[in-house]
Amino acid sequence: MPKILICDPIDPIGTEKLKNAGFTIEFLKDKEILKEIIKDYDAIIVRGRTKVTREIINNGKNLKLIARAGSGLDNIDLKAAGERGIAVINTPEASADSVAELTIGLMVSLARRIPRADYSMKRGEWLKKELTGYLLKGKKLGLIGLGRIGSRVARIAKAMGMEILVTKRTPPPPELMKSLEAKYLPLDELLRQSDIISIHVPLTKETRNMINAEKIGLMKDGAYLINTSRGGVVDEEALLEALRSGKLGGAALDVYSTEPPKRLELIKQPNVICTPHIGAQTVEAQKEVSKVIAEKIIQFFNNHKAR
Fold it and tell me: Which CATH architecture does the domain made up of 96-274 adopt?
């Protein structure tokens, strides 16, 4: 049976599934030796921590599958994998609800200034008059991307009485837009009209720094920006300047161009709410990610065997 190397921790439910299906499972103890030992494995399982570079892929003489337990694939050299005929799979469906709920939580926290209210109370302060909030009902929420996560955010926001604006590379299905009572707009027009902008796209060559100084300049004065997708989608220097100048009213970030961040200027801004990439960090999502990736691996090798 195929040998699988688990490079980053996953919930035991997935490893048990693989063992019960007859796979040999081993765990990577030192990332420095991955490029040397990968030749012995038919598949690897990674999360965001392990970078699957061209060198690692080329050393995987028996490698047939790279399995990403999560949604993003920006830590995998997809071009190198394609050249070698190595399949790449992931589990974007498994954590969509968790990321969507965090996005809504960050939006409410921005609007009602919950982190500052909590911090001030713990300091013995009573800042009731200083903490006037921002009603989300009736506001325009601009969604950049309307996949599994974006559509869930849209449904929750619609139930809160928000107006939904959407932009993506191709127009969404008409039935989905109708159910959301949403309006489809080009990116620049969405940026101009939205009170709050939430990003839900993968990190690719096309999306890297797509929210830059020029795009931020199109946004409403005082608008809020939420990013729970990938840090590299936003030009962090441009965002920092917009927050300092008051062009943007605030930002909520779960992802960063470098993780963990080495420069803290952006994070320390008083109008920024930060979380340490916890979008998928719920008990339920972690179990589902592990279960789904195991099921996909089993299916892949069953299909591979049948050829």
Answer: 3-Layer(aba) Sandwich (3.40)
For the chain, the structural domain boundaries read 3-91+283-306, 96-274
CATH code for the part of the protein at 3-91+283-306: 3.40.50.720
**Structure confidence by residue, pLDDT tens digits, 203-253:** 988 999 999 999 999 999 999 999 999 999 999 999 999 999 999 999 999
Q: How far is CA 280 from CA 157, 258, 305, in A?
A: 19, 18, 33
Shared fold status for 3-91+283-306 and 96-274:
yes
What are the E-state strand segments in the chain?
A: 3-6, 24-27, 43-46, 65-68, 87-89, 140-144, 163-167, 183-184, 196-199, 223-227, 248-253, 272-274
Catalytic residue ranges: 230, 259, 277
pTM: 0.88
Tokens of 2: 């195929």
- Please list the ranges in the chain whose pLDDT falls under 50: none
DSSP state of 124: T
